[in-house]
Write a structure and sequence with these properties.
Oligomer: single chain
Radius of gyration: 22 Å
Helix content: 40-55%
Number of strands: 10
Shape: globular
Low-confidence stretches: none
Order of helices and strands: HHHEEHEHEEEEHEHEEH
Mean pLDDT: 85
CATH class of the largest domain: Alpha Beta
Number of domains: 2
Number of helices: 8
Strand content: 15-25%
Strand order of the largest sheet: 4-3-5-10-6-9-7-8
Structural class: alpha/beta
Distance between the termini: 59 Å
Largest sheet: 8 strands, mixed
Length: 282
């Protein structure tokens, strides 16, 4: 007999099916691997069904799990539809809007300009998620997302609009001679134009540092560790770094939202503010 299952248990099952590894699932759930393993075993015991085959940390779905996940996904879609309909009923921009953005845009474009938005709409609250990876708008992991570069997997469940361009230039330290060595991006970012540009400059040489956080890269530049290709908007706020030479590349900035949220006062207000910021500073 199947014990009572909570909706959070089904969310966890869906997250496990998409993560496909205990380590990745633990990272997404912000718990340790032991907790993930214990919760999976508890869920299997509650359902009296074997859900995953575990091998070297990998999670492989069993045939029974695939059948159950199809039902869980329909429940997830129903919940999403319910929440969207509730959003549409709001006539004034009051409530919470979740924005996902990469670190540079979140810290140097959005956060400093939030007072303007909140003063304009006092009933509005923002949840700002700083993400280096792209979130899934179609699964409503955020209400609005900013991302660098166009959608490679565009579909009719996401509306995308180019709102600006982010300029990149070479930066060096102000209190040290210009270093010869580079501070580069991690290999897993090899598809990013800025990472490719630096790799061409390296031409096989080893960088002094690889980092996925532009703040850490800028601080390393300031210390004299190396030179780096960084967004130009960082130059005015990060001390002890200076731009050397003109812009060398641009990244397109895209605004994404779910099409069914575009009619809500909340999302309209925030999208309008984001477009304003892009026109002013990108």
């Amino acid at each position: 007999m199947v014990r009572r299952i909570e909706w959070d248990d089904l969310r966890f099952l869906l997250a496990a099916s998409r993560a496909r590894s205990i380590t990745q699932l633990a990272r997404e759930q912000m718990v340790d691997a032991t907790t993930v393993s214990r919760r999976l075993k508890s869920l299997e015991a509650a359902l009296n069904v074997s859900l995953f085959a575990r091998a070297r940390g990998r999670l492989e779905l069993t045939e029974q799990a695939r059948h159950l996940i199809a039902h869980a996904e329909r429940m997830e879609e129903a919940e999403l539809g319910f929440r969207m309909e509730a959003h549409k009923l709001q006539a004034t921009p009051e409530g919470t809007v979740r924005i996902s953005a990469p670190p540079t845009l979140a810290r140097y474009v959005l956060a400093p300009n939030l007072p303007r938005l909140v003063q304009r709409h006092p009933g509005l609250s923002i949840e700002l998620e700083i993400e280096t990876a792209n979130i899934r708008i179609e699964r409503w992991e955020a209400d609005i997302a900013l991302r660098l570069g166009p959608l490679s997997d565009a579909n009719d469940t996401v509306l995308a609009r180019k709102v600006g361009r982010l300029a990149y230039a070479i930066f060096g330290p102000t209190h040290h001679p210009m270093p010869e060595r580079w501070i580069a991006y991690p290999h897993r970012f090899s598809q990013a134009p800025e990472a490719q540009w630096v790799e061409r400059e390296l031409n096989g040489a080893t960088p002094s540092l690889r980092a996925n956080d532009p703040i850490a890269m800028a601080q390393a530049v300031a210390s004299g560790l190396g030179r780096a290709l960084l967004p130009e908007i960082m130059g005015a706020t990060i001390p002890k770094i200076a731009q050397h030479g003109p812009t060398v590349l641009h990244r397109e900035v895209w605004l994404l939202r779910h099409p069914e949220l575009g009619t809500t006062a909340l999302v309209k207000a925030v999208c309008g503010w984001l477009v304003e910021l892009a026109r002013e500073g990108l």
